[in-house]
Structures are given as C-alpha cells and as structure tokens.
Known about the structure:
- Keywords: Membrane, Transmembrane, Transmembrane helix.
- About 60% of the residues lie in helices and about 5% in strands.
- By secondary structure, the chain is mainly alpha-helical.
Amino acid sequence: xxxxxxxxxxxxxxxxxxxxxxxxxxxxxxxxxxxxxxxxxxxxxxxxxxxxxxxxxxxxxxxxxxxxxxxxxxxxxxxxxxxxxxxxxxxxxxxxxxxxxxxxxxxxxxxxxxxxxxxxxxxxxxxxxxxxxxxxxxxxxxxxxxxxxxxxxxxxxxxxxxxxxxxxxxxxxxxxxxxxxxxxxxxxxxxxxxxxxxxxxxxxxxxxxxxxxxxxxxxxxxxxxxxxxxxxxxxxxxxxxxxxxxxxxxxxxxxxxxxxxxxxxxxxxxxxxxxxxxxxxxxxxxxxxxxxxxxxxxxxxxxxxxxxxxxxxxxxxxxxxxxxxxxxxxxxxxxxxxxxxxxxxxxxxxxxxxxxxxxxxxxxxxxxxxxxxxxxxxxxxxxxxxxxxxxxxxxxxxxxxxxxxxxxxxxxxxxxxxxxxxxxxxxxxxxxxxxxxxxxxxxxxxxxxxxxxxxxxxxxxxxxxxxxxxxxxxxxxxxxxxxxxxxxxxxxxxxxxxxxxxxxxxxxxxxxxxxxxxxxxxxxxxxxxxxxxxxxxxxxxxxxxxxxxxxxxxxxxxxxxxxxxxxxxxxxxxxxxxxxxxxxxxxxxxxxxxxxxxxxxxxxxxxxxxxxxxxxxxxxxxxxxxxxxxxxxxxxxxxxxxxxxxxxxxxxxxxxxxxxxxxxxxxxxxxxxxxxxxxxxxxxxxxxxxxxxxxxxxxxxxxxxxxxxxxxxxxxxxxxxxxxxxxxxxxxxxxxxxxxxxxxxxxxxxxxxxxx
Length: 756
C-alpha cells in the first residue's frame, strides 16, 4: 500500500508540473502583480489541462485516461511556452523572487500540514462524502463524459460534477489510489485557496502603494495577504465567542453553520473539516482566480479615446475578457450559483470601467449614458459567450431543477442579532473601509481646512503645501485612477468597492428572495448558503487589504483614530480565530486516537469487514460500470455502499438526493430516463425504491427477471445491508434464474446475470 508521504509527494509534484506548464500564460495575465502570476499558475494549469482532457472526451475524440491527460498536458505546455514565454517573463519572475518564496512556502505548508491532520479523520464516511466520492469514482471510470450517475442506473449525472471530475483528474495524473486522492484533493483546495487569497490581497495592497520602500520591502503586503488568508480559509464567525464560554462541555462546532432556523450558512474552514468534496468547496480556488482576473481587468483598463468612441473593445484587453469568461464558465460546471454571482461582479466592473470613459460631472449620467450601456452590453455578451461555449457539452447534458424565484414571507426574515453573529467581523470592517474611502474622496471639511491653511500661511508667512496637508498621503494621488463623475477613485479601490457592494447584496438578498427547490421547510437554505459563501470570500479580500491600508494611513497622519480602529479590528479578528481552535479539535476527535492513513476507505474493513473484501474484489475484477442491484436506504446513511465505493451505478442509491436532482419523488424524473423511453412506463424515484424491495423479497422468478431486464442489471449484490434492509430477503430465486455466483465469501454473495 502506498504511504501517505509518497502519495502526498506525487500529488504535489503533479500540481507543480501543471503550474509550470501554465506559468508563461499566468505571467502574461498577471504581470502587474508582484509575484508575476506565480500564485495563479497552478489553478490555471489545472483548469486548462483538465478542461482540454474533459472536452476531448466529451466530444468522443479521446477517452478519459492517463494517456489523454498526458496528451492534454503536452498541448497546454507547448501552447503556453511557445505563445507567451519571452525574455521579459523570466525577468518578471526574477523580480518576484521574494513573493514566490513566500507563496510557495504557504502552499507547501498548508498542503502538507492539512494532509497530516487529515490522518486523524480520513474516513470517506458520513454526511455527503459517499455521494462526492461516488461522483469522483464514476468520473474516473468513465471513458466519455458526462459520467454515469452511480445512484441512478442508466442515467448520467444531472448535477454540477466538474469539481468531482477535477479530483479524479488530479488523482489520475498523480497516480495515487482514489481514496487517497479524495483527501489529497481536499488538502489541495485548502492549499490553493490559502495561496490565492494571500496572493490576491497582498497584490491589491501592493498596487495601492507606489512608494519604492513598500514595494522593495513588502512586509505590509504580506500581512494584508495573511489576514485575508485567515479570514477566508481558517477563521469562523462570532458563534464561538458568543456560545462557547457558557457551554464549554456541550458546544458543537457545526452549530455555527446552522443556528439561524431553517438555513445553512457555512464557511470554508467548516467545509475543510467535514471533508465533503462539494461544488462550493471545489470552486474556492476558481472563484479567487476569477476575482484576480477582474482586478487585473480594472488595473489594465485603457480609457477610450474620443476618436474611437465606437470601438467597444479597444479599451479592454480582449484576451483577458475571454479568459475571464472561461473561468466563469468553469464555475457553472463546478457550482452553478457562482456563475451568476461572478457574472454580476464582472458586469458591474465592466459597467464602471465604461462609465469612467464618459466625460460628465454626474455619476448617474456616466453610468446611464447610451455609450456606457451599449459598450457594457456588448462586452457582457462576449463574456457570456466565452463562458458558455467551452462548456456546451455540459450545458447540453444538464437539466436544471430550480423552479424560479420566490419571495421570503414577511416576518420570516433572519433575526438581526443572529445575522450580526455571522457577519460581525467582516461587515463592520468592510463598512469602515467604505466610510474611509468615501471620506478620502469627498471629505466635506476640505474647503474649510483649505481656507484655514491659506490664512495661516499669510498671517505667519509660512510656506504650506496645502494639497499635502489635505491629503496626508501625496503619493496616493499618483495611483492609476478612474474618473466617475466628479470623483477620482484609485483603481484598486474601485475593485474593492465593487466586490464589497456585491457582498452586501448577497447578504441582504436571502432576506427578500430565494431560489425555489424541493425543500418546502428549508426553502431559502440553499440561497443563503451559496450567497453567503461567496460574500465570505470577497469580504475576506476587502478586510485583508483595508485593515492594513487604513492602519497605514492613520499612522502616517498620526490620527488618534488609529487606536480605537486597531483595537476594534484586533478584537474582531481574534474573536474570529476562536472558532477554528475548537472546531478543528472536535472535528478530528480531539486528536486522541492514533493517526491513520489518509486512505479514506479503510474504515470499511473496521465497520463492514465482509463487504469491504467484496468491494475490493469488485474494484479489482470488474471493469467498466455495469449496473448493480443493492439495497436502497436513506440519504446520509451507509446504504448504496457498493456504488459509492466503486463508482458502478446502482438502480437507486440515495432517494432524497435523486429527488433533488430529478425534481420529484413520485412524478416522472427529469430529464426523462432511458428506462421510461424504453419501456413506456413512468420512471420515478419512489418507483425504483419499491422495485428494489420487490426484487430482493419476491419469490416470483418472472418478476425478478423482469426487473433485471428493465434496469439492465448485470450484477446482484447481497451483503450485510441487504440482509438488514429486507426482512423477507429471498435468495433462492437467484438459483432458479439465469444468475451465477461469482463471489461468495463471509456471507456476501455477488451474482452475475448469465446473459451478460
């Protein structure tokens, strides 16, 4: 068996190779950043190589395999290095050596430490890990995408599976066992999320200062990046501060993500601990990459010249816009909620940039001029097309089950004090940033102060630099700015203001509207969950930059406000740091047990030793994805054990999840299934549950055979859960049917249909 150290090393090497493959492109896109794009090269390499492999398989050009991954990696490497590598690329990276060392250290530490910690709770067992692991295995076993739904025989996955596919992609590339690859992928997401959060916040702060001292000795940039890293990936909300002191013995860390009734309000560290490889987690590095591209788009914007007022693209970097579209398209295939959110972020950025090209003293006129609206609409259309076209195979094979938008009934909004516990750290700091930004742009006392300074100069015959006294920070005026009406706002602050405003909207919207799904009681749970998650990430960037920037300016001016500001911020950040201390301790069993391997399926040999051996036999001896019959149980239980740990499809896995993905329990599933098309019979989730009960319990050979034919069952599994679930289990009929026993050990039998 492969050791943890070897598996981790192989995984890290594979990711580094992908990063090097895409490094020239990352440098081309992010040359304005102090690290020359180093921090984003890894995720770009993963996405480009992973997408090309997936796309070729989706078009049935190359079957998904290690060979196709190698071919795609070669193509990506050749394209990036032949197209974008220049002498200035090397020079840019040489200048960035300090940032690169710090960032690579962060990546390796987070990846290695979290993988080591994971050894104390490595089981792919509980919550939705069965589903996630099954999706990942199905993707790894498929030849041509989309992958089969391991919980619904005969159908492909009707869900946002691209993050699970990427886990399978990196696991194949690294050549590590799949159950190790699952846990290593979670460590990778944590490491990439930390690396990118640090890099983006540090780079934004670095671009907010043009003095050579700060750029030569960027320790303040590093602190800004570190704060963002912690607030996004490590720290929690104020729940632990409020509830832990009075409930030391009974405090339960998941309560911090569920205490507003009938809602979900998770954040990354909770996701990392519970270890569910869900789309919102897989998307963390992707959305931070998207934010970085938006930041670069704002920083590199060139105002439209009067002679080119009809050219809507001359003032934008078209390749950058197309790449942003590709990243947002990846978000849709990974976690569709983020697709809409970051289209809004990008659209607002484009709208603001176009408004800055309009000469007007009015912000309203600048934003709503015909030229601004037309330019923004055309650019947004290009962005949308760039996001959809690369993922057309995914769009064509997915049927969304959302049922429109609903209004939150009056009186059922979240209690303000509970929302304050959730957002008591990020929102106050972000609000202070907006106030600071507004004051420094439109401070109403400047005319009065200017008059006082002029009078003082005349009376005392002093030579006073009035502008310097008014700004308190003359080099700020040299920063690249955008003119919006009468305001002149530095570009880095435009970026921060945009993501700040969108974050506030994401926090407020779940109190007004929700996206309809199948949950009647928890009707706004998913809306709050997905909106809050992205607000958490964006506000983490805002807080990391603004804390250090405002502190820097207050210190320069020797303002007395620096003491209460630093005191309040320090208290809030420390309070947020209370949560992970208790949560990590609880999530890993107080670290009292012996550390185990990160092989996540070893628990099977402890809990289900007989089934574990049978599952190992299936993985070793059965190729492809034949249909298995096995017991049907409730979601979040150990039922559908075979399909979840092999990736082979079963007739019905977790009914509630299929209900969620297919739209109904008792109505025909969407999209229409192959069973319904072939038989003309209504195919429902509930119908399959009943069919499996009858299949295992009936004594009627003809009925059992008809169900085998109906669902194209090739193997029948009879193990501990089948015997537990079906009290009237009858296996004698299998001896009278066209079935042969291919596995029989320790009270577990596997039958194979003779005609297969």
